[in-house]
Amino acid sequence: MKRDIALARKLAQAASPNVLAQKNNLRVIDNVKWASEQINKTSCLAGLGAVVTGASSGIGRAIALALSRHGVQLCVVGRDPSTLAETVKAVRQFSNVTSFQIDLTIQDNFQPLFRHLEGVGRLDILIHSAGVICQNPMERARIEDFDLQYTTNVRVPYMMTQRLLPLLAAARGQIVFINSSAGLFVKRPEVGQYGATKHALKAIADSLREEVNPKGIRVLTVYLGRTATPMQEALYRQEKKVYRPDRLLQPEDVASVVVQALMLPPTAEVTDISIRPMLKT
Ligand SMILES: NC(=O)c1ccc[n+]([C@@H]2O[C@H](COP(=O)([O-])OP(=O)(O)OC[C@H]3O[C@@H](n4cnc5c(N)ncnc54)[C@H](OP(=O)(O)O)[C@@H]3O)[C@@H](O)[C@H]2O)c1
Fold first, then answer.
1. How much is the pTM?
2. How many domains does the chain have?
């Protein structure tokens, strides 16, 4: 998204060379908005349809925003009505959006989303970003927390993908699993439950890729390090560490690599991306 804004500013400058120097801020904003609309019209993603889970916060929200700037028609899924409404407001400036306020751990709640998508008859991109983490040593960890992480981080993306595969196959679409470095290796204590769910998600994505590539569907997993989102802020609080979001990956960084990968021509598939903060704390 940062790159999009930079490009938008360049285009705005090209349209009116002195515009950024002008004191009238509204004029600048008008030009940036105009330039964003040009990107939106010319992007190879423009007009595609996407579902983004976890769109009410953090990484899911940043991906939804980045896709909207490319003219992608969005279904955004989240649980908190007020933060989901904030995402809708931001996304609506650039593209069409339908929101689904759903607790994904309750299977019946999916039906309105599935009915909507089947009515539209098209799905090109499915982004799984909803996730939870519960961090505790095994001697204190609750089995209920393990079940919640399994349901949210593994069962939900599996079930949604399974149900939406026919639409994705018809569109020769793309599926993105937002995973974690804990899905590749676990080198710190207290994340056994979370790491197990993210390892499971990796297994599902890797196997699925082999199944659906012949149908033209691409599968990308993104393995993230610590990213400045409400989830990470809560972890820092729990760890009693000072939260310095500027030292972490930004949700927009993640959104940017996801969008770049989605834009590749269908002759190429990016299977895995590992991204971590530049500063090591
Ligand atoms: N932040 C990091 O450092 C980091 C690192 C590695 C991997 N990840 C992964 O990145 C993904 C996004 O995390 P984030 O950092 O953006 O966290 P976040 O800011 O806490 O966002 C999590 C999102 O998941 C949604 N969600 C959780 N449980 C849900 C449920 N039962 N039903 C519907 N939606 C639900 C939340 O919805 P509501 O807020 O509306 O409840 C929210 O939109 C997760 O899969 C996480 O495991 C994050």
1. 0.90
2. 2
